[in-house]
Amino acid sequence: MRGVVSPKLVPLLEQANAAIAQAKQDNQAFAPSIVRANLDKLAGLMMTGADIPLIKDVMFYAGAQAIPARLYNPNPEKTLPVLLHFHGGGHMCGSVELYDPISRDLALAAQAIVICIDYRLAPEFPYPAGVNDCQHVLSHYKEAVKGMKHNDTLYIAGDSAGGAISTTLVMNNIHNEHIKIDKQILIYPSVDYTMSQLSIEENGTGFLLEQDKISWYFEQYFQQSDSTHPIIKTASPLLGAFSPSMPKTLVITAGCDPLRDEGHAYVKALQEVGVPVTHHQFDDMIHAYMLLNSIVEEEYRASLDLISRFVAA
Fold first, then answer.
1. Residue 307, domain CATH
2. Is the peptide bond before 68 cis (omega within 30 degrees of 0)?
3. How far apart are CA 189 and CA 264, in angstroms?
4. Which residues 6+ apart lie within 8 Å of 34 measured at CB?
5. Which residue range(s) make up the domain with 105?
6. Hey, how many other C-beta atoms are within 10 angstroms of the C-beta on 195?
7. pTM to 2 decimals?
8. Does residue 115 lie within any of the structural domains?
9. pLDDT band at 119 (very low <50, low <70, confident <90, very high)
10. CA atoms within 13 A on the CB side of 224
11. How confident is the model over 140-179, as pLDDT tens digits?
């Protein structure tokens, strides 16, 4: 069923839909530089994040590959868990800078040292480059918190493509005795690259993230236009092997999101193997509403509250 959007978002969507239509008419809708610039414009719709006493840029090195990240410590005098934050953006866009307000608020809500990773993006660096960067940080994150008060509790969190990375890391490390992920937080996650869920079509136009744009994102990421290609199925977390050993999970979905149904399917798959999962849907929200928090502050704050209660439970 197609979602019914909040009146708070209608003016923005009317403006965005007109711009999308014009860009398609001008053959300028699909270019990495334009898509990245458009996402970065959402920074103007974001509130200033929480005041965090310790923020610093850090660098990880996987051989010759440098992986930038930013660390947020909300209480340097207290021993805290660590939360790895993987930003969204269709594996093509997004950055630590754009997500800075969310990382700040996430650190405060979770009472955790947050590390947000600037992983490599497609099409310059297609799959699995970004996943490999994030895997390296997962394996070496303690290097960044050396000298800080922290415990061994580890959370991971991501929205959209960042959610895909989060749960991919969970599945890839389920038998890795050196890595223990205690909880994962997925916000409107992308978990089915085959685009086979009904909401892809039901919510695939008019709600900012559109079906043809998703398809184009995935073509850049996988360098494949065939949604049935084996690499796309292999990379889709929803089609992977679920295990009762997976961590406790919070899934937040949006009712007007093309990715809504794959989030629901992911919740069901976790439940079927006995993983404790909490699911909340904001029925009248769209994909990426966390980046529109000045417009939907109530829902944004409610999402942070869900995260706070989930990690505290």
1. 3.40.50.1820
2. no
3. 10
4. 23, 28
5. 7-312
6. 19
7. 0.97
8. yes
9. very high
10. 13
11. 999 999 999 999 999 999 999 999 999 999 999 999 999 9
